Amino acid sequence: MSALTERLLELLYPSRCVFCRNLMPPGVLCCEHCRRTLPYALPAAQNRQLPHIESCVSALRYEGAVRDSLLRYKFDSATSYAKIYGEILAKCIDENGISCDSITWIPLSRRRKWLRGYDQAKLIAEETSLRLGVPCVRLLDKIRNNPAQSSRGGPAARRANVADVYRCAAPDLTAGKRILLIDDIVTTGATLSAAASVLRKAGATAVVAATVARAGD
Ligand SMILES: [Zn+2]
To answer: Both 81 and 10 in a single domain?
Structure first.
């Protein structure tokens, strides 16, 4: 891209804070005010117990500007947001002392990825991987197109909705490994648990999980 094209793009699509949407200098994705005042998840809310998962940490609470930002990221093609989410998530993983051999993510089905054009959790996992210096590898495939979890009711309905949805895509890269599983949001944890169970059956020694935001409490 030429310098002129870059300058024109900046004028047409100025940088805005991914949370409050205030104008930012080129390349800056989050304002200082938001960095200080975001609804960070409290340490007491970490290390939540979910089946098949050693511990699950989340960086932020899913509310207000965080919720609006993640909705733009998912449904409005705001893919550049993955950079700041990855930065915030890597810091949270580091602060919680979580270690792993490799990083993977909760994949979209091929159809949904095709419709959306990108796999939102994959982009966050890649950004987190760059910051933690741990390889990011595709270990899961989504083999059944279940209705979106957000349209389901209680915990039992959510668990049933994600049963047999994932398959291990690379058993040789899974066996004997301690794996960090990444998603954008955790609500009941049914999706993370179902995916972690697949990785454990394929021989992963442990699965830890991390999400950008946590809903429901
Ligand atoms: Zn801001």
So the answer is: no
